């Protein structure tokens, strides 16, 4: 267990193994423990770190009166990358963690060996793509969450949120421990909507800035919003492959961990000991990268 500090915040980091560094970023309302099976699968060959993002797990608690900026989260992740040797790293992110990984990559904050994104919540891409219906759908979920939290009703915030990502009735069926966790972390989750909507980075800029080989994953039965975002990213990034995980939804890394983890391990292994793509530039994607699932390399 490692504690990293940047400014007024600290971050709890679970790390194990040795070799090329792998950094795993979890979804909202979760913690680095989300990746424990993937960490176990990688740690014999890689140095794997799974931080608790701010407001989760053992990292700094979130004060609703405090105004978190995206740079607070990324500053701690800069420390994590330096702790791992400064890169290049294999970077993996899911949902809000996927958004954070995408931000690190597009800002050039980390030298990448490879990038894996499972349904990153880059909702501004829907707006820029003219997807008014999809953008309005997810904006409604976000506005409901933030309004309910603002009036002090964490249950009314979390109920439609959990149902949207996990299917109708998910809140009603959830154990009380899950509901309690959602209440405790609601302040941080409420703040995480903003960077998902307020960015204006176009796909062309993402394509120009991210040269690393990228695996874009989505659930086979996921929401249309994140499926469309994955399609936009896979179609724009110059060295991306796209894959659907059969039967999975947005929480595939938890509900379908074996299939998701296997795909991530194959992607990381395919790009181990390759060039530093941020410096060396592009490289052709290898044929047959994925094995069991269909892969669509960008032409």
Automatic annotation (TrEMBL):
Superkingdom classification of source: Bacteria
Sequence ranges assigned to domain AB hydrolase-1 in this UniProt record: 21-256
Keyword RNA-binding: no
GO cellular component: a single term: membrane
Pfam families: Abhydrolase_1 (PF00561)
Alphabetical keyword list: Hydrolase
Example of a GO MF term: hydrolase activity
Keyword field contains Transcription: no
Protein name (Swiss-Prot/TrEMBL): Alpha/beta hydrolase
Organism: Salinarimonas soli
